[in-house]
Amino acid sequence: MLSLSKPPSVEDIKLRLKSAFQLFEAQKQPGFVDEREIPTIIRSLDINPSQEQLRIILDEVRGEDTSTGMVDYGRFESVLVRHFTEMTPSYVRDTEDRLMRAFRAFDPDNKGYIDADVFKTIIASKGDAFRQEEVEVMLGACVEEGKIFYEDFSRLLAEDTFERKYV
């Protein structure tokens, strides 16, 4: 993940962007990705933009040509490098403590877990709602016997993987 405490260099950002872009690159159009993949590419970089931030990024990446639905790497890179070098705290993951407080709000009995079905309903309907497939992927990583033990999950969500893996 990109971090405000020790911002990565532009070169590091470009390397990560190129690597992520290539995973989604269109086979029939090298150097291009389907614009619908851009939110997934961004999230694969451990960046957590809001729906509004994604909309702004997508509008900028599309530019004036929205007819093809495809985005070339040059445009993608220039927009995202600018966004991530002029980053605000809203792109950065929440701290483990903040996540724990949020989970505890849904655990009034202080059991240390919340039911997966309750969590699924919450994240599909509150704030920046997740798509069903995003919910399933997230739950696949953290559900144990229909429960989410949020202490471990909070730690996982708060990890600063960019610094751990790349710096």
Report on the architecture of this protein:
The chain has 2 domains: 10-91, Recoverin, domain 1; 96-166, Orthogonal Bundle (Recoverin, domain 1), CATH 1.10.238. Helix 3 (51-62) packs across helix 4 (73-85) and helix 6 (116-125) runs antiparallel to helix 7 (132-140). The protein has helices spanning 10-24, 38-44, 51-62, 73-85, 96-105, 116-125, 132-140, 150-158, 161-166, and strands spanning 32-34, 70-72, 113-115, 143-144, 147-149. The radius of gyration is 17 Å and the shape is elongated. It contains 9 helices and 5 strands; from the N terminus they run H-E-H-H-E-H-H-E-H-H-E-E-H-H. The chain has a 3-stranded antiparallel β-sheet. Strands 1-2 form a two-stranded antiparallel sheet. It is mainly alpha-helical and 167 residues long. 54% of the residues lie in helices and 8% in strands. Residues 94-129 form the EF-hand domain.
Low-confidence stretches: 161-167
Radius of gyration: 17 Å
Instruction: Classify the fold: give the CATH topology of the largest domain.
Output: Recoverin, domain 1
Order of helices and strands: HEHHEHHEHHEEHH
What is the CATH class name of the largest domain? Mainly Alpha
Q: Please report the distance between the alpha carbons of the first and last residues.
A: 10 Å
Structural class: mainly alpha
Strand content: 5-15%
The CATH architecture of the largest domain can be named as Orthogonal Bundle
Instruction: Give the helix level as a range of percent.
Output: 40-55%
Total strand segments: 5
Domains (count): 2
* Largest sheet descriptor: 3 strands, antiparallel
On the 0 to 100 scale, the average pLDDT is 80
- Global outline: elongated
The side-by-side strand order for the widest beta sheet comes to: 3-5-4
Number of distinct helices: 9
| CATH homologous superfamily label of the largest domain | EF-hand
